[in-house]
Amino acid sequence: MSTPLHDDLALAYRSKEVPPVRRIRDGVWSLPIPLVDSALRSVTIHVVETPVGPVLIDAAYDTSGCWDALVERLDGIGHPVESVRAVLLTHNHPDHVGLAERIREVSAATIAIDREDDFAHQHAERGGFLDQLSRALALSGAPEATVDDMYRSALTIARHPESLRADLVLDDDEDLVYGDVVIRAVRTPGHTWGHRVYAVHDVVFTGDTMMPEGPVQLTLPSRPDDAPVRDLLDSLARIRDLGAAIACPAHQYPYLDPAERASELIAQHSRELADAARVASSGATAWEAAPQLTWAKPWAEMGVGTRRFALMQTLALLQSIDR
Questions:
Q1: In 3D, which of 249, 255, 203 has the Cα closest to residue 28?
Q2: What is the pLDDT of residues 57-103, one digit of tens each?
Q3: What pTM was estimated for this model as a whole?
Q4: What's the whole-number mean pLDDT along residues 296-317?
Q5: For helices 228-240 and 304-318, what crossing angle results, to 10°?
Q6: 162: three-class secondary structure by DSSP
Q7: Domain parsing of the chain, residue ranges
Q8: What is the pLDDT of residue 1?
Q9: How many CB atoms within 10 Å of residue 154?
Q10: Which residues are CB-contacts of 118 (< 8 A; sequence separation ≥ 6)?
Q11: Which burial class, exposed, middle or buried, applies to 63 when counting CB atoms under 10 A from its CB (0-12, 13-18, 19+)?
């Protein structure tokens, strides 16, 4: 577990409350956006103040409640939403990209995302989320009836647009310049194929790749040669080596010493990979291996959605083993 930057923000998370707006350091703010009827409770948009206007890291869900909260919180720190200069997206999940288009409509902000998470590119290369899920379930070795149940259960969480057009599609690591503020955009796949972290001053915005508590959720391995855990381990090493003093994830709370946290997660996911390798030594499929791995809830007690999550994590582990 990591050392919180502010104890009250960690307490709010653990008490299942929405944390307050907080200045992280000079020129950097966290704006927790409440989520209604969501186990996540909130998603944090971070603000980097620059001479040419505020730059946002991520954009919450596309709901009226999230929009109203963003406008109110931006106004509260002295920045009307119309003044936003750019929206830098860590990845393409709906709780991160949702309001980007609406922000651009009122401010002419530039939207940036990694090429592998750019929807147009991803649809051409891999298809949409449901296409990827369908192929991943087929790779898992689960019985056909189970695959059908798991796919149907995912429809309720997959009802979101995948049509956002980015103004800036990022390929390699890049320095994004806003007046005299330079934001480093670093490729960190593993949670998604095009996940990025952004670093400025002594702060790294880690999106969903490096929470202070818990493991990293892995992306869907929809091709036989996909290896999300190997990608993630490389990405964690890159974050570790950035030299940042503060990590600001999109959920939970900001914390100190991201290098130490990255090392902890490298060790944790390496152990998971070794455990999966032991189970897979008998040639087990993901469906056969998943009940033998350790989960927060026993396999026998899981519902369809939780089993789908565990099965996809297992497939990601198995496909990352050197065999």
A1: 203
A2: 999 999 999 999 999 999 999 999 999 999 999 999 999 999 999 99
A3: 0.96
A4: 95
A5: 80
A6: coil
A7: 3-274
A8: 66
A9: 19
A10: 92, 166, 169, 194
A11: middle
Q: How many CB atoms lie within 10 A of CB 206?
A: 33
Q: Which residue type occupies 76?
A: G
Buried b (16+ CB within 10 A) or exposed e, 177-200: ebeebebbbbbbbbbbbbbbbbbb
Q: For the stretch 114-140, what's the b/e string if a residue is b when 16 or more beta carbons lie within 10 angstroms of its beta carbon?
A: bbbbbbebbeeebeebeebbbbbbebb
pLDDT at 264 over 90: yes
What span, in angstroms and rounded, lies between the C-alpha atoms of 132 and 257?
Answer: 35
- Tokens representing residue 123 in the block: 């649809």
CATH homologous superfamily of 3-274: Ribonuclease Z/Hydroxyacylglutathione hydrolase-like (3.60.15.10)
Strand partners, 174: 185
C-alpha–C-alpha distance, residues 33 and 105, integer Å: 20
H-helix or E-strand spanning residue 260? helix 258-280
* CA gap 291, 288 in Å, rounded: 7
Cβ proximity of 15 and 169 under 8 Å? no
CA distances for 23 relative to 6, 9, 41, 46, angstroms = 10, 12, 20, 10
Tokens for 230?
């190997």
